[in-house]
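Narrative summary of target 7.
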Amino acid sequence: MKQMMIDMMGAMMPYMKMPVWVGVAFAAVGLLLLVSKMVSGKAPFLGIVSWVLIAIGLFFIICQGMGMFLGMKPNIAFFANPREFDFGTRVSFWQVGLALLVPGVIFKMFSRA
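Modeled conformation, tokenized:
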């Protein structure tokens, strides 16, 4: 069972860039909505964007915990070029999760005000 979970985690790691970029897109939209809220006083979707960011951030933090439980160090290689044996900048899942969770919490605080 543990080996199957290790294999699954190894298979999913290359596909984790897409949720990161989705989270970055939601963070950018949230920033625009936050500016809109400060200027006009209303931003109806800021609460939804904040919950999506919180969910994606918690997903990455939970994946980091599960990977550590399995004895792995889950990370994402940004800007990698395997043809030149350049494996890019490696970022741990917990760092990605925290980078998405914090703006989500901040946007959530401003969505209520």
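Residues 41 and 105 are 19 Å apart (CA to CA).
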